[in-house]
Amino acid sequence: MKKILPIIILLMISIQWSCEKAIDLKLKENEPKYVIEGIITNEPGISKIQISETKAFSDDNQFNGISGALVKIENKGITIVLTETGKGIYETAAINGTPGETYNLTVSIKDELFKASSTMPQVVPFIDFTLKPNDYDTIRVTPMVKFKDPLETKNFYWFQQFVNDKIQKEYRVINDDFSNGREINDYLPFENNTKNKALNFKKGDKLTAELHCIDPAVYTYLFSLFDANGSDNGAAPSNPLTNISGGAIGFFSAHTVQRKTITIP
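Request: output the structure for the sequence above.
Response:
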């Protein structure tokens, strides 16, 4: 039996869904699995769920979308059925996410049922995104992000990074275990880890940081992706800790979005 690798796990990068991040994960199991990824934000626009299936390691890296699923999102007793707008792409414009509210996802594929739930946290203001003259060179830029963690709640944060509006492989997740109630000033590195010099940073490049306030289960999922490919010492890889029940891979997140942009001088 072929070893199965989920070639595509698409993290939904922005409310416009103009960019996607592909992550290669090595599964312990030998059978294909469904991959479900979805995001609802507090910005107006389209809510989208993507459904695909893991593929053999030797197969191509194209999105393996699954058609014919029944996808529903429920909030406060109102259920919305999403429309399939492309193979494996399910969308609705009828949902406008609200902080503090819980959204329940149900996906039916043939005779299988998958469920997930996510509560959108309150907005934690993204105060500043700055770059000092000595904090960049051609392959690494280290701007500073600034925000104030609320004292009264446990908070989790997800930073996504763009260069000239293109999503970067790197992202960062933070909790407030050691910073509860404090102002946080931290670096958010942008790096060119490839041999492609065309990707080196230069004057005029636009850097964008998106701050998402996420719930604990989504934080756990994103944090676990760091270990999904195994460690450098040869340890066996493990699957990320999904918040979707029923045996699928992926995540469902209702979160807030704030973004700031700076230009390399």
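The longest helix spans residues 216-224.
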